[in-house]
Amino acid sequence: MSAAANKKRRQFIQQMTGLGVLGLAAAGGIFGASYLKAEPLRLRPPGAVPEEEFIGLCIKCGQCLQVCPYDAIRLEDIDGKVGVGMAYIEPRDRGCYLCDAFPCILACPSGALDHEHDSIEFVHMGIAVVKNPGACLAKTGTPVPDEAIDRIYDHTTVLSAAERSSHHVEISDSDPEKAKLQKQLLLKLEKYRKENPCTICADLCPYPEPLKAIGMVKAKGGGLLPEIREACVGCGACVELCPTDVIEIIPRKTYADIYGEKGEHHA
User: Fold this and answer.
1) How is the chain split into domains, by residue range?
2) Which residues are bridge partners to 130 per DSSP?
3) What is each CA distance from 103 to 86, 97, 240, 241, in whole angstroms?
4) Using one digit for the tens of pLDDT, what is the confidence trace for 195-217?
5) What's the CA gap between 169 and 184, in Å, rounded?
């Protein structure tokens, strides 16, 4: 499909879905214009078109969720301001790990996740910021506590009850690919138990060239701190894996928006 045809298709779907929402609003008389805005702004899956367009295009089918190898995508529940079923990511519970094939984009039938943006150079979900540097284990020289890694086991859905309770996994040939990927992540985390200093966020960044997205630098007064770099796409993996909740993602923002054109860090 040509770019022009694809754009025309997306505009048509957006108009139709938008009319549906507006019809509900007129009939019920209970929704204002703010109904069409997520508060706070949600982190959307890779390939998401601009927010207002995304809200008009997403048909809440859940196909992106079904194909996500890491179970990163959620659907908005009854409290969601933009309606039940809208796709989003809650990075503290599960970040996006930037799958090579971006199956979520390929599965989207409406254009809310743009099929022309199914490669890493087009992924711009948001930007990471270091919000609480004083709590960073690399800064304080504190070993990674067991519970910080156990937490990732506890919300990894592909595990058996025994694997989740024991916090121990092994990869077998019979495991589905989805289980293998998620277990590989856990095995990578295991080496950080009681290790000092913690460099999990930088070491396990899924960006193809991670040092372009995040790195550890010397902190004032000693220790290390994560530094967010220009290639960061806001996938949220570092947020999920950080033992002390030091990093957050600001959806829809760019590196220049937060750090300036010269990379002046404000976090």
Assistant:
1) 3-122, 126-259
2) 247
3) 17, 12, 21, 22
4) 777 999 999 999 999 999 999 99
5) 9
